Amino acid sequence: MSVIRKTKKKPPPEGWDEIEETILEFQRKLREAENDPQEGRRKCEAVWPIMRIHHQQSRYVYDLYFRRKAMSRELYDYCIKENIVDKNLIAKWKKPGYEKLCCLQCIRSSDSNFGSSCICRVPKDSLDEDRVIECVACGCHGCASCD
Predict the structure, then answer these.
(1) CA distance 138 to 58
(2) Cα(18)–Cα(40) distance, rounded to whole angstroms?
(3) What is the pLDDT of residue 1?
(4) How far apart are CA 51 and CA 136, in angstroms?
(5) Where does the pLDDT of residue 63 fall: very low under 50, low under 70, confident under 90, or very high at 90 and above?
(6) How many helices (H) and strands (E) does the chain have?
(7) Residue 130 has what pLDDT?
């Protein structure tokens, strides 16, 4: 018989009280988006609200830690460890050219028909002005960093 270990979660680090309410609000919105009826929507449109809320939550923690410097490293690591934020998306935001990236699916060339990135990564001045751009993966209207 194998021994099953139950790890006790460490208490959240200092500063968690300040962001907890906002994180819980994001998670409440996420549950609402998951439970929304999907009738009348295309199959791909069903996940768009979930992707947007996930992006907002990760962007909130990113801004607190990297831009405003209002969060400790311990709290940032705790958010990553508890899967509150998407660490891969935040890693891309730190690289030049990906500051406004909406989701990782938009840069994954294996997911597109032509082996390139998503249409939302194309700068708006390179496209027709009257054309409405909408990413199939997340519903983004343009996340090129030069826009």
Answers:
(1) 15
(2) 39
(3) 36
(4) 12
(5) very high
(6) 4, 0
(7) 78
Q: What's the number of CA atoms in the CB half-sphere (13 Å) around residue 8? A: 2
Q: What is the mean pLDDT of residues 100-104?
A: 88
Ramachandran class of 31: left when φ > 0, alpha when ψ lies in -120 to 50, beta otherwise: alpha
33-80-89 Cα angle (round to 5): 65
**85 CB burial (10 A radius; 0-12, 13-18, 19+):** buried
More confident of the two residues 36 and 28:
28
d(CA 132, CA 4): 54
The angle subtended at Cα 122 by Cα 119 and Cα 123, nearest 5°, is 140
Q: Which two tokens stand for residue 78?
A: 């705790």
